[in-house]
Amino acid sequence: MGLFDFLFKRKKKNQTDTVAVKNDFPEEITVVPFPEETDVKPEEIPPVSVENMMVEPEEITAPLPEEPAVVFNEAGNRFDLEMAEAFKRYHSDPGLDVNLQMQDEKGSIQAAHQTYEDLFREWADIQSKWDRISLLYRFWDQSQLEKLDHWQVIERYVKDRYPKKALLYFEEKMADKRDFTKEELVSLSKLHRALLDNQSSRNYIETAYHNHPEDDRVKVEYATVIHILGNQSEKEFSHQLFQEVLDKKTRRNDTESVFDCFRFSEGYTDSSIFAMLYLMNSEADNDAWDHVAEEYYYCPVFRYEHAVQLSQTGNSLRALAKLTSLSQEFPWFKTAVESTIGTIKSVRKQTNDPDFMEKELQEFQSSLKNS
């Protein structure tokens, strides 16, 4: 099966079997430019549309019904599965063998949700998957953090949307090191990309690629960074490198579509930028974006482009909700903050509500002024 047959195996609604593709990667397909690498001024960035928008609470889903024990068991099973997944993510090891069952005083086997009842109750009240995982991460920090390698701690903080904590950890624990392992170099590159310091990312990952050019994790991160910062020939080389690793994953036949290759699993291709390129290049629908978005909630550029995608497909409420949370969690991402401010002002005009999101607007304007 050719790569793009594989890519389009997951079709959009009403999509026919005929798909015309000129090349694997368009030269420039981003709706808004990547930060730190363009001369486009903020005022030239298209605002997120809020036409026909009704102001409602942010992405609130219905709570689990208070019924039967069946519901409790269903939530308990989901907790058990998500806790095992989160434990693997906490250790940055998708192949880790996890068994969270324990014995009670009588020797009976208990599931995780039975052993950690208080944690389970708190988890059940959280809507966002990454907020739930963040709760589990904080729980394990009490017993597991000191057992992690330096690079695992960096990834733990970066993937949990705390890159500045990761930077502080680096300054306290790693700044005096002369030689870094390949895992440390990859994690430090990801850290600086989350901070939008792409040049520092390149400095770290170029060292890793020079010393370990055949390592797949190194190749994916190197391809990602040089795609962002490289010239045309470097971009072409980045596509070649990434393709080599992606082909290995697709040959495993353990994924239903190319988008699954970007999800946390053994041999996965951990690149928010290439995930974004594939979604754009395939004109993926909102379901496909949501499918991949859970993996890159820590990446401000991916989250911004997801908000743009939602706006362009008529999901203005979700777009605003995502812009708001993005700007709160990554206040150094000026493009997102400016777009959030512009969107709030547009909603005010359209709804004739001059006080709409006043607290948030002041917060974002202050953040932009102080950045």
Folded structure, characterized:
The chain is mostly helical and 371 residues long. Helices cover 57% and strands 1% of the residues. The protein has helices spanning 3-7, 69-90, 112-115, 117-124, 129-141, 150-159, 163-173, 182-194, 198-211, 216-229, 232-251, 272-281, 286-293, 300-312, 316-329, 334-351, 358-370, and strands at 102-103, 109-110. A two-stranded antiparallel ribbon has the order 1-2. α2 packs across α5 (129-141), α4 (117-124) runs antiparallel to α5 and α14 (300-312) packs antiparallel against α15 (316-329). It starts with a helix and ends with a helix.
SSE topology sketch:
Elements: H1 3-7, H2 69-90, E1 102-103, E2 109-110, H3 112-115, H4 117-124, H5 129-141, H6 150-159, H7 163-173, H8 182-194, H9 198-211, H10 216-229, H11 232-251, H12 272-281, H13 286-293, H14 300-312, H15 316-329, H16 334-351, H17 358-370
Antiparallel strand pairs: 1-2
Helix pairs in contact: 2-5, 4-5, 6-7, 6-8, 8-9, 8-10, 9-10, 10-11, 13-14, 14-15, 15-16, 16-17
